[in-house]
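Annex B. Sample input.
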Amino acid sequence: MGAPTIEIAVQDATGARAALDAGADRLELCQALEAGGLTPSLGILESVLDAVDPLLVNVLVRPRPGGFVYSTEEVAVVEADIRACVERGAGGVVVGALARDGRLDRDAMRRWRDAAGDATIVFHRAIDASTDPRAVFDAVIAEGADRVLTSGGAARSFDGIALLSEFAAASAGRIEVMAGGGVTAADIPALFAAGVDAVHLSARRRSGTDAPSGPGGGASGHDVTSAELVAEAVRQARR
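Annex B, continued. Sample output.
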C-alpha cells in the first residue's frame, strides 16, 4: 500500500482551497451533505475547478436523496451530469446505483463508466445499502470502477473495520478501497491499519448560526469545511 490518502468532502471553492491548504490529498465535491450529498450545481462545479487543480476533484453525481434505485430518466440525468463534469476537467466522478434486489445495477454502471471516459470512477456508499456488499464489491470491480467508498456496511466506518479489512485484502490491487462514513480524526490510524488505501471525511463545522433565518429558509447556519479538522485528520494519517 502507498502513502495514506486523505480525501475531504467539500461543498464550495472556499472549502476546497481550505482542505488542500491544510494537507488533504484530494476532494469530493458535492452539495447537501446533510442529505448524504447530491450533485453540485454547474456554477459551484466551475468555481471549484477554477480554484484548485481539477484533477484532485471527484464530483458526486447523485440526482436525489432517498436511496439508490433509479429510473431510466434518472440514469440518463446522471449520465449527462457525468459528461458535463468530465468535459470541464474534473478528475473523477462518484456514483452508485442498485437494482431492486439490492445488487449492483450493472446497466447503469456501464453507461456511467462509458460517460466518464478516462476520468476516475468511484462507486460510493450505495454498497453499504446493498443486500450483499461482498457481491456488489466484486461486481463493481468487474464493471471497471477505480475506487470504492464504503463504511464496511456499518453506520460508522470504525464499526465496519472487519469488512473493510476483508475488502482491502480482496482488492489485490484491482481497486482502491476508501473508508468513509462517520469518520473522526481519532478513527483514522485504525482504519489505515485495517489496510484501506484512503480515508474520506467531511471535516465540517457549523457556521453562520447568528444569521437571520426562519420559515422558508430552513435552520439557521450552514456547514463549512474546517481547516483545523482537516489538518488533524492529516496528522493522524501520517502517524
